[in-house]
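Example S7 (C-alpha cells).
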C-alpha cells in the first residue's frame, strides 16, 4: 500500500510538470475572462483568438461584450477604483472638489478681466455662482469689469509692477514648458504643482464641432492620424507605427489621403454646415469616429502634459493609441487607451492593434468605462479642466483679496 501511494504521488507530480511545460511553451493557453486579449495597460502581450472576427458594427460589439462580460464583472475588476473614486496616485491632480474653508475667502464677489488670449473661448464669459456663496464674473469686456480684481494674460506679459489697489496679475501657460512670466501673482497651467491647475479635458476646448458619431468602424483602414506640426521626432514615431498598420493621415504630416481637408470627401455627413466653408476642427470628432483607433502623440514627453489630442479621441468613440506623458493613467479612465510605452517594439504594438481590431469583445472593453460608469481619476481630470476654471480662479483671487491685496 505505501508503494502504491508513492507511485500515485510520482505520477501526479510528473503530470503537473507536464502541464507547466505546455503552458510556458505556449501550447496550452488560458484565455482571460473577458476576452482572448488582455489589457494593454496590464500587459503588452495577447493570446491569439481561435476565430478572428473583423467586426464593423460597434453596437454589435457592445452586445457581445454585454453577454460575455458585462458591467458587473467590469466593476468587480475595478472595484478598488470605484471604492476610492480614483487611482492610487492622486498627486497629478489638484483636489478641486475638496473641502473649502469659506473663512479663507476675503471677497464675496470676484471679477476677472481677460486681457490677452489666443484660444480662450468667448462663451466662457459668464457670471458664475461658486462655492461659499462666492460670485465670479469672468469677462473679456472692460465695460462689464471696469474695476476687476484680477487681469488674466495668456499671450502677453502682465504689467511689471503692481501698486496697491491694482488688480492681481494672473498668467496662464498651458504649453509643455509651463513658463511663468516672472511677475504674476497667480499662475495657471496643466500641472498639479501650479497655483491653479487647468487640464485639457474640458468640453470648452472643442466648441462648435459636429458631434455626429458613426457606430460603424472601418475594417480596412484601422487608424486615424492628423498632424500639421511636423516635428521630426513625432514624425519618426508615427511613421514607424503607421508603416505597419492600415491608416489615414489627414494633416500636413505623412499625408496619404490626397491632400488637406479630405475628411469631408470621405465622410460628407460630418459637415457641420454645408453652406459655410469647413474648418479642420469642426468635423474632427465625426471623422475620427469612423476608425477603431486614433493615434495620439504629444509634442513632447513631459509629466502631466496630457493634451486634447488624447481627449478628442476618447470623445469620438475611438480607442486612442497614446504616446506621451508617462503618468497618463492618472488622467484617464481605466482600460480606455492603448499606452504605447507598454510595448517593447512597434511590431509588437501593431500586432496587438490588429488582433484587437478582430476581437469585438476585447475592443468593446475599451469602451466599458463609459458604458459602466467606471471613471477613476478621469472625473477629477474633468473637474480640474478649463470648464471649471472661472470659479477656481475666483476662489484663488478671493483668498488673496483681489485688488485689495497688498502690493510687494
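Recovered sequence:
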Amino acid at each position: 500500500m505505501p508503494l502504491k501511494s508513492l507511485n500515485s504521488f510520482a505520477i501526479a507530480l510528473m503530470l503537473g510538470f507536464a502541464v507547466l511545460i505546455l503552458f510556458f511553451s505556449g501550447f496550452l493557453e488560458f484565455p482571460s475572462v473577458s476576452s482572448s486579449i488582455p489589457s494593454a495597460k496590464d500587459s503588452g502581450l495577447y493570446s491569439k483568438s481561435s476565430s478572428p472576427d473583423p467586426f464593423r458594427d460597434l453596437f454589435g460589439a457592445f452586445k457581445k461584450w454585454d453577454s460575455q462580460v458585462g458591467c458587473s464583472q467590469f466593476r468587480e475588476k475595478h472595484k478598488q477604483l470605484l471604492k476610492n473614486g480614483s487611482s492610487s496616485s492622486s498627486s497629478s491632480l489638484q483636489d478641486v472638489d475638496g473641502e473649502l474653508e469659506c473663512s479663507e475667502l476675503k471677497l464675496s464677489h470676484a471679477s476677472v478681466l481677460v486681457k490677452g488670449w489666443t484660444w480662450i473661448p468667448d462663451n466662457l464669459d459668464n457670471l458664475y455662482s461658486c462655492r461659499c456663496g462666492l460670485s465670479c464674473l469672468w469677462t473679456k469686456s472692460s465695460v462689464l469689469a471696469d474695476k476687476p480684481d484680477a487681469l488674466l494674460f495668456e499671450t502677453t506679459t502682465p504689467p511689471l509692477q503692481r501698486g496697491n489697489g491694482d488688480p492681481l496679475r494672473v498668467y496662464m501657460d498651458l504649453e509643455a514648458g509651463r513658463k511663468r512670466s516672472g511677475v504674476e501673482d497667480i499662475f495657471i497651467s496643466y500641472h498639479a504643482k501650479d497655483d491653479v491647475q487647468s487640464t485639457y479635458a474640458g468640453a470648452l476646448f472643442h466648441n462648435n464641432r459636429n458631434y455626429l458619431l458613426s457606430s460603424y468602424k472601418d475594417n480596412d483602414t484601422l487608424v486615424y492620424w492628423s498632424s500639421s506640426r511636423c516635428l521630426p521626432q513625432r514624425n519618426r514615431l508615427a511613421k514607424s507605427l503607421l508603416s505597419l498598420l492600415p491608416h489615414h493621415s489627414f494633416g500636413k504630416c505623412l499625408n496619404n489621403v490626397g491632400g488637406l481637408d479630405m475628411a469631408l470627401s470621405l465622410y460628407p455627413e460630418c459637415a457641420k454646415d454645408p453652406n459655410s466653408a469647413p474648418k479642420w476642427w469642426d468635423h474632427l470628432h465625426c471623422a475620427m469616429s469612423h476608425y477603431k483607433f486614433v493615434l495620439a502623440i504629444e509634442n513632447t514627453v513631459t509629466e502631466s502634459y496630457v493634451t486634447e489630442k488624447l481627449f478628442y479621441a476618447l470623445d469620438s468613440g475611438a480607442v486612442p493609441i497614446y504616446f506621451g506623458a508617462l503618468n497618463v493613467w492618472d488622467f484617464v479612465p481605466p482600460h480606455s487607451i492603448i499606452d504605447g510605452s507598454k510595448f517593447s517594439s512597434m511590431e509588437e504594438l501593431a500586432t496587438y492593434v490588429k488582433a484587437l481590431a478582430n476581437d469585438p469583445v476585447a475592443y468593446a472593453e475599451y469602451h466599458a468605462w463609459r458604458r459602466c460608469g467606471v471613471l477613476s481619476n478621469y472625473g477629477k481630470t474633468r473637474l480640474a479642466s478649463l470648464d471649471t476654471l472661472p470659479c477656481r480662479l475666483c476662489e484663488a483671487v478671493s483668498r488673496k483679496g483681489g485688488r485689495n491685496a497688498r502690493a510687494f
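Notes on this example. The chain has two domains: 58-85+205-382, 102-198+386-404.
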